[in-house]
Amino acid sequence: MGNRKRQTAQANKEAKKSLAFAKLNNCPTSPRKMRLVADLVRGEGVNKALAILKFNSKEASRRLETLLLSALANWEAKNEDADIETAALYVKEIRVDGGSMLKRLRPAPQGRAHRIRKRSNHVTLVLGSNNTES
After folding, report:
1. Over the stretch 63-100, which tens digit does the pLDDT of each residue have?
2. 19-129 — its CATH code?
């Protein structure tokens, strides 16, 4: 490995040290419905995002709440000596991508059939820290 490549790899590794992420794959909710809830918490602090997801009535918010708690646990496992309250964690990035589709047929009048697409999605949540000292 070249010197410049090694230096950039080390810089990327140091930058990712303050990040923690969690993924939710093949969630049986349409991506559009999930994005509506994901847009509410993007860029918010962790405590405020948990409060938003807890009191939101949509089903997607329950799934994102467990995903956020999982990312928080991943951050704790990575930084055992750090404290959550002093770290000033926030939702740095949340991505909702389309997943696989189940294709079904619904009978229609006069011998026809309509296609039903049961969509799923993949969610990636990245937590960042505002503190640069740790």
Report:
1. 999 999 999 999 998 888 888 878 889 999 999 999 99
2. 3.90.470.10
